[in-house]
């Protein structure tokens, strides 16, 4: 007998990930709870980390890249005096130091780690080196030498200092920035060593903690064998941060069929965009999809 593939659900579920679970485990659990055909996530969180893990169901997976490109906000606690091989509390101690920088010294180190920076990723990362995952190589006792990578940190603030051994920071960044590397580098810049003891993600693109659901609350009840599809946010919620461009009904039909539109015909309606020129194309109150402003045209990129 052919195996049933699950329900064809579409939308976003914003999970408040608990510590100790991988992002893949959260996806698997949500897929089972909802009996869903297709689920993916919008940006990996380390097992130690808690906080926002957006899950994309069905056609929402088409919008995952735009969520991952969005601004992210994190809070982390830096534990001073111990370096760990994973740069977080799950790793083995590799070095110690008695140096405990002052608040002023910690703040003085932040400007060099803000803006467009070059960052050496943690060896325990999913980056590939000659076809192998860096974390697999590290676990085999072959930690790779990872080259610095460009990263964008928009805001980096010291927000609390509970005691001499710990400091709490808040970071606003783009994609591909490793909080573990920032924690490591702040400590090194202050002449000591350190690692992340606590890490929480507070925002991903348009999604905030107000949207988040605790995983344990998704347990099906006696009235329903599966978690309710009403918990899912609409697919287009993921695109709320992207500037909107309203089309006429005729223009929407053309774009839906893959036709580019002249920007001359759209004058007066074109919003300010970032360097990518991406816009959220609206057909009346409905999100038609995504387009890009380039070469004097509005070109369809992703129609939902």
Automatic annotation (TrEMBL):
The active site is at 46 (nucleophile). CDD domains: PseudoU_synth_EcTruB, PUA_TruB_bacterial. InterPro entries: PsdUridine_synth_cat_dom_sf, PsdUridine_synth_N, PUA_sf, tRNA_psdUridine_synth_TruB, tRNA_sdUridine_synth_fam1_C, TruB_C. Keywords: Isomerase, tRNA processing. Residues 31-179 form the Pseudouridine synthase II N-terminal domain. GO terms for biological process: mRNA pseudouridine synthesis; tRNA pseudouridine synthesis. Residues 180-239 form the tRNA pseudouridylate synthase B C-terminal domain. It catalyses: uridine(55) in tRNA = pseudouridine(55) in tRNA. It comes from the Bacteria. Residues 243-304 form the tRNA pseudouridine synthase II TruB subfamily 1 C-terminal domain. Its EC number is 5.4.99.25. One of its GO terms (molecular function) is RNA binding. Responsible for synthesis of pseudouridine from uracil-55 in the psi GC loop of transfer RNAs. Belongs to the pseudouridine synthase TruB family. Type 1 subfamily. NCBIfam families: TruB. This is tRNA pseudouridine synthase B.
């Amino acid at each position: 007998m052919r195996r049933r593939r699950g329900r064809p659900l579409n939308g976003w579920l914003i999970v408040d990930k608990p510590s100790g679970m991988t992002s893949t485990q959260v996806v698997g659990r949500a897929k089972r709870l909802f009996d869903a055909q297709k689920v993916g996530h919008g940006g990996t969180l380390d097992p130690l980390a808690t906080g926002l893990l957006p899950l994309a169901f069905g056609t929402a997976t088409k919008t995952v890249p735009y969520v991952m490109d969005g601004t992210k906000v994190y809070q982390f606690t830096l534990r001073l005096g111990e370096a760990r091989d994973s740069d977080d509390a799950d790793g083995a101690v590799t070095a110690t130091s008695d140096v405990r920088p002052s608040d002023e010294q910690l703040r003085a180190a932040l400007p060099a780690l803000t803006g467009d920076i070059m960052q050496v990723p943690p060896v325990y990362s999913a980056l590939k080196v000659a076809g192998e995952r860096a974390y697999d190589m590290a676990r085999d006792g072959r930690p790779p030498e990872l080259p610095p990578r460009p990263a964008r940190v928009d805001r980096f603030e010291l927000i609390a200092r509970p005691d001499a051994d710990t400091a709490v920071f808040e970071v606003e960044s783009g994609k591909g920035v490793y909080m573990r590397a920032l924690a490591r580098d702040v400590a090194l810049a202050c002449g000591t060593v350190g690692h992340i003891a606590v890490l929480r993600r507070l925002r991903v693109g348009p999604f905030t903690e107000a949207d988040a659901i605790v995983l344990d609350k998704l347990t099906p009840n006696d009235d329903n064998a599966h978690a309710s599809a009403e918990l899912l946010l609409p697919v287009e919620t993921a695109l709320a941060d992207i500037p909107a461009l309203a089309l006429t009904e005729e223009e929407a039909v053309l774009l839906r069929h893959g036709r580019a539109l002249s920007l001359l015909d759209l004058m007066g309606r074109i919003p300010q965009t970032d360097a990518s020129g991406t816009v959220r194309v609206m057909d009346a109150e409905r999100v038609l999809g995504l387009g890009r402003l380039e070469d004097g045209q509005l070109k369809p990129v992703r129609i939902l």
